[in-house]
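ok so I'm stuck.
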Amino acid sequence: MKRIFYLILIFIMVTFYLTPISLADGGLFTQLYRDIYEPNQLAMIVFDDMVEKIIFQIDYEGDAEDFAWVVPVPGYPKLFSVEEDIFYELHKLTQPPPPSSFGCGWGAGVQTPDLEDEGVHVWEENQVGIYHTTTLSATDPNSLVVWLNDNGYAFPAEGQEVLDYYVQQSWFFVAMKIQHEGTMNSSENYSGAIQPIGIMFFSDEMIYPLKISTLSVPSWGTEVLIYAFSDERVTFPGAAEEYNAIVTPDQLKEYPILQGLIDETFVLTKLRKNFSAEEMDEDLILLPVPKYIALGNIIDLNSPVGQFVLIIGIFIFLLKTKKRNI
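replied:
not stuck anymore, here's the structure
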């Protein structure tokens, strides 16, 4: 029994000291590439007092005139433009160290309450950055598919079932096309990530609308990277956590874009996952991490000190187990 006990202890110590603990998977690319150029969907979410602000950036390749994007949200949306470098700032902020409150009325926007077409209601149209946006709601998914196709969104007929999922929950839809001075009279080709856009809405829970992406997911899957600001460290099923820390407004002085969006103290969690089409059958609900697995909030498992503390803890646990068996 004693020999087995010491063999287990030696194995644990050798394992921890010869194999560094890593909270993120490695690769041949630089971390900058992985954070900004590799994910198919980039998002920053700020969740505070049932108000969610979500900033999206997606990959697109093709002519600007062919671009069409539909985002469902659970509450009436307010759209806002975001500078392109925001995800570069988030990348810098979440690198490991070297060895508001709003009223119920969103206001703004070109109100078009008259435009209703057989089960589809157009609430407003806006120009937000490079996007021409239309805020919609619907009572019939088939009518919504017809409206989208009639208005140049080329929405697939098989997507009606997905739209019905959101229509049944009385969600709103933000339909977007690229339209700015450079593309009004000539076609401009895009390749890679395009300008991010922000959407703000009321929500009972911290949510990322993923299900609708099943209509465009490639056979090899879609990588999603989310930066979540909330009162607690959060996660979702299968997510790889790459960073978590308390972030205060004073820490954002070197990040002017983030400073304009974050005006109070939050916990920032960085989460990544590569989804297959089969895994995208539900929207992502970001929930607090259970306390019993939140060891990373107490010690840094990537540091020698953190690893030493963990080994001592395991040694004490084994010692107590051994005494009980005597």
